[in-house]
């Protein structure tokens, strides 16, 4: 919460809240006495008309959601659209927004990104969205629940390869946490640590470096395409293929001879 947001909530004539029970705790914390009523997905159309009448009469109001920024996967789009179409003023007051908050601490590229909200739960639409993430040349951001995070990470394992992933959970709260790595590594973390709290999943464009083991070097060196090469030439060719130092490959090959 910003000072400007608190002052606004104290000075408007009324507050429209996604869930008045949740918002009551927030308003009590900041000693806000302003009258409040519910504005959510199921009543937004009707409430918008009533709010519009009151605004036309000269009143001022504020719209808040349960957490984060209103309209970002929260109600408010129809209300804001009606108010703007009526020629009335809509003033955005910046505050916490989980996709932006998560991106700032993820270490992933932020010069260009796509925000996808919640992914479709199943079917062809979900498959298409996951493939779009895999094919993207920029960071992709979406929200996920703790109940579905392991399923989603398993799907990411199958499609994004070694792209770097960062999951931020419980952002700005007491148990805030960021987990980064490949899809396999992030999934392993949540398999051993019970997922809790709403999560922001970010899939970057860079690949997680793969540690080349001696075993991998031996397997590569045994391929028939290297059979005619001398040990030195084979070491050079394998080193180029695996992007490791020639000296490392040569030492492994010599130890196996």
Write the layout of secondary structure elements.
Elements: H1 3-11, E1 14-17, H2 20-29, E2 36-38, H3 44-56, E3 61-64, H4 77-85, H5 98-106, E4 113-118, H6 123-135, E5 139-144, H7 149-159, E6 163-169, E7 177-181, H8 183-192, E8 199-207, H9 214-221, H10 231-242, H11 246-256
Parallel strand pairs: 1-2, 1-3, 4-5
Antiparallel strand pairs: 5-8, 6-7, 6-8
Uncertain ranges: none
Helix content: 40-55%
Measure the end-to-end span.
67 Å
| Rg of Cα set | 26 Å
What is the CATH class of the largest domain?
Answer: Alpha Beta
Number of domains: 3
DSSP helical segment count: 11
The largest β sheet comes out as:
5 strands, mixed
Strand content: 15-25%
Mean pLDDT: 92
SSE order, one letter for each helix or strand: HEHEHEHHEHEHEEHEHHH
* Structure class: alpha/beta
CATH third-level topology of the largest domain: Methyltransferase, Cobalt-precorrin-4 Transmethylase, Domain 2
The CATH homologous superfamily of the largest domain is named: Tetrapyrrole methylase, C-terminal domain
State the CATH architecture of the largest domain. 2-Layer Sandwich
Biggest sheet strand line-up: 4-5-8-6-7
Shape: elongated
Describe this structure in words.
- By secondary structure, the protein is an alpha/beta fold.
- The chain folds into three domains: 3-85, Cobalt-precorrin-4 Transmethylase, domain 1 (3-Layer(aba) Sandwich), CATH 3.40.1010; 98-207, Tetrapyrrole methylase, C-terminal domain (Methyltransferase, Cobalt-precorrin-4 Transmethylase, Domain 2, 2-Layer Sandwich); 214-256.
- The chain is 45% helix and 17% strand.
- It is built from eleven helices and eight strands.
- The chain has helices spanning 3-11, 20-29, 44-56, 77-85, 98-106, 123-135, 149-159, 183-192, 214-221, 231-242, 246-256, and strands spanning 14-17, 36-38, 61-64, 113-118, 139-144, 163-169, 177-181, 199-207.
- The strands form two sheets. Strands 4-5-8-6-7 form a five-stranded mixed sheet, with helices on both faces. A three-stranded parallel sheet has the order 2-1-3, with helices on one face.
- Helix 2 links the parallel strand 1 (14-17) and strand 2.
- The radius of gyration is 26 Å and the shape is elongated.
- The mean pLDDT is 92.
